[in-house]
Amino acid sequence: MRDLADHALDAALRPGVSYADVRLIESRERSVSTKNGKVGEVGSTESLGLGIRVLADGAWGFAATDDLSRSGLEQAAALAIRIARASALARKRDVVLAPEEKYVAEWVSPCRIDPFSTSIEDNLKHLLSVDAELRKTSGVTLAETSMSFERQRQWFASSIGSRIDQTRTTAGVGCTAYSFAENEIQKRSYPNSFGGQYQLAGYELVEEVRLLDAAARIAEEAVALHSAPQCPEGEFDLILDGSQLALQIHESIGHPIELDRVLGSEANYAGMSFLTLDKLNSLQYGSEIVNVVCDARLNHGPGLGTFAYDDEGVPAQSIDIIRNGQFVGYMTSRETAAAVGMDRSNGTMRADGWSRIPLIRMTNVSLLPGDQSLDELLAGIDHGIYMETNRSWSIDDRRYNFQFGCEIAWEIRNGKRVRMLKNPTYSGISTEFWNSCAAVANRDHWTLWGVPNCGKGQPEQVMGTGHGASPALFRRIKVGGGYQD
Amino acid sequence: MMESELMTMRRCRELFEAAVHAARAAGVADVEVLVGVRASALTRFANNTIHQNVSDATRYVSVRPLIGKRTARASTNRIDRDGIRSVVQEAIAIARASEPDPDLLPLAEPAPIASVSRFFASTAALSPEDRARGVLEAIRAVESERQTAAGIYSTGQTVDAVLNTNGVEAYHLDSLSQFSITAMAEDSSGWAKASAPDHNAFQPVELARSASRKAALSREPRELPPGRYTVVLEPAAVLDLVGQIFADFSGTALADQKSFLNNRMGQQLFGTNIHIADDVYHPLQTGAPFDGEGVPRRRLALVEAGVPREVARCRLNAAKVNDQPTGHGFPLPNEQGEAPVNIVIAGGDTPLEKLIASTGRGILVTRLWYIREVDPFEKIMTGMTRDGTFLIEGGEPVCGLRNFRFNQGIIELLRNVEALSPCVRSTGEEAMDMVAPAMKVHDFHFSEVTRF
Q1: The pTM is what?
Q2: Model pLDDT, residue B1
Q3: Which of A178, B44, B216, B301 has the most CB atoms around its CB within 10 Å?
Q4: Residues of chain B found within 8 Å of residue A35, distances taken between Cβ atoms
Q5: What is the DSSP code string of A51-86?
């Protein structure tokens, strides 16, 4: 494979080409699911292909192919150069890349139990037992379970001499109970919505998540929601559980700090960002207890955004994003770093497979834990609301105004959860919300959550991102707008 | 890629026969094979320059054996002899390891499929230089108004074929071109987008001028308080919002009690002026006239005079309710079953300009964004306006407005439609392309205002 990557790179290095890189990717996926006691999906997918990115005449071109014959690679390289030269027809200035060292490396992500060594039979047996447990609760009208695994090996070669062989294995697992009654659909998911929890891990994630232990509880909650009162409308102190806070971080911090958005590259689709360049080191993004990092290193945890090198061959790094509430950092590429005068990319370029170009993507954007227990957070509330597990999410194209809905909530009175509430929603403006953060729970409650379905770019790319979070308390948040008359 | 470079039916048959040969060698007689090609090229621009420019092509073979009451799917893009043999062995191995499904049907039987012609060689032949010239002309139109342009110009070709050992041979080839553009002024923006199998169906520079006019008209936006307003939704806003409900027009979703249509089929749910069909044969529609099992797609009257009448049914769901499959099933095995994918919302006879002219005070919406479901049974959706939101006074757009968040039930919305424009082929970013009109709707609920 390395030879094929080298051949494609050689074919791309023609006169006028100032930079080229090649990613040859071999991937394997397995998806297994059940629905109401029967097999849902049983599927296996493999893919092998190569993408060539070139800078010619000062502009970018990219071509991808699954024809890995020598002539196929040469045609793809020639097409990438032709496309770059066409780009140059509408060029304002030459693309400049921030300098980077060359690396020759091999890296394999930790994976205690190879998921592809487990049998489909055992995968289904496990899911069907969870499915049966969900349906034991009267009133559950639909039970769904799933697990998925992916292994991707990438050979990266660039014209500055880097040769990086990187293998990542990811896993996802989860279940959901639905209940339809009296013209209302309620659901509860475990351990999270969007198919559950996802990490850079093998089958050990399935063992750690312990779906079977939680199935009865979430099934009962799905049914109980029908008789719970509607979440009230008004301003309340609000505690978000870690999984919901992970998505809040993703939408209201993760996307706005993408420097390509800030500079306008995504303006026609995903949008731009309120974090214009003048805000760096001057904006009070959150209260003084808010500390956020973007950390792709393995010692941050096994996140969907964990790797050794990004897809431009830049090593994984940890970046301070919000320090004691102040906005201090963007996520960058080699091109955007150079555009704003930084001397190096902080390594966040990733592509959705061999047929797509790398874009700035969240790695693991995490809220660092505070120093209180969840009980201590609750104790600080006279009358408030605790919300858990995302049900809907929406934010404007500059990432100011957001609204989230959760699957379930509890009313808090005098520091105690007193009753279940249904259909909770909350909304706000990103910086006002983070400045209202009054407490963050400690590391005992901290989990590195996986968001498997982050969309960006045209053609759209779907990427997995990581977000570490523990429950946190926010003061005077607008609640209930989603069901407002 | 030209037609000759894409996968022909003959080549699809060769790959199918190779898969069948490998399956029979492993003792499996019943096999379904999906074969296809995805080729696309996309030129992306921002800040009045091309900043990304890509091309990709891949082929696939996807194999589903039936072994008694067991099935599974394995897919690959390695379509040489070893790749085919390997994917067939994988499919058989995982099917044998799977649980039996007592409801599993035999492979589909062949049935006549009406052909649709949706491949334009001139679109497939559009070169990187052609796209760059189209983009450059659009950028100049926006730049001349002292605005900044961002957008895409793309072309793509798709081959989809379904073949099985019962004799099904379904094959579809099409092309698609898209252009979209956002024109940005100091404190405002405007947007336009078009898509069609034939790139000659639209002119990028005209879309650029339209986006630029909206950006100019919406400068210095005013802020209106949240509340209920009469709105005129342009077709892209209609499709992105109303498009959120069609996955529920599914027999499997009804059986799973996941659909908002549970207990509501046959009732007067929407206004009597609402008529919605699923019609792959409509001249403005795109896509293949068969489903993931090779079953021919038929026209569905989803909503007639505001009453939900029909839903899509895959073979399995149809068998359970003693009905005929409609040709909307997804490739098996899957949990979702089926969904309509060629939506045609019947229009009225009031042109968009007259919808606006008939509005004393209201809001004109170009485009909606980040639409998500708040309530699955009442179909309350939340989202934002974007890139061209205007106050209408005295029948004219008079100024731009800061963007709103909405929380709006679709059932309620389709009861509140006062008038519709003729329908057009329309494209947005939140739902599939469809044929849809503009709508004038009263009491649309804007719940918050954002900062721009």
Answers
A1: 0.97
A2: 67
A3: B44
A4: 256, 335
A5: EEEEEETTEEEEEEES--SHHHHHHHHHHHHHHHHH
